[in-house]
Specification:
The chain has 95 residues and is an alpha+beta fold. It contains three helices and five strands.
């Protein structure tokens, strides 16, 4: 079965996301400062045709994007709760 983050979100299939994220990833980090004025730091994880980006904004909040789909980590879903559980409280915006 091909991984589709849109399908995972639609089904709120946290177990499928956990399985996907347990795979081996190539990981890099980068400080970020773009011409648009965005700053912060970014963790980039790549595997096959997939990419997970976690951007830590200057205000400390983290944003998660999987395969170019921004995940609302403040939503009341199993997926959002799972992603928040991987972050410190301040990065999840839960302080």
């Amino acid at each position: 079965m091909m991984f589709s983050i849109s399908d995972i979100i639609e089904r709120d299939a946290v177990r499928d996301l956990e399985t996907f994220m347990r795979q081996g990833w190539q990981i890099c980090t980068t400080p970020s400062l773009w011409a648009s004025g965005w700053a912060g730091s970014m963790l980039i994880m790549r595997r096959d045709a997939h990419e997970i980006r976690v951007w830590r904004r200057p205000d400390g909040i983290a944003e998660v994007e999987i395969d170019d789909v921004l995940i609302d980590t403040k939503a009341n879903t199993r997926i959002a709760r799972y992603l928040r559980s991987l972050m410190p409280a301040e990065a999840a915006g839960m302080e």
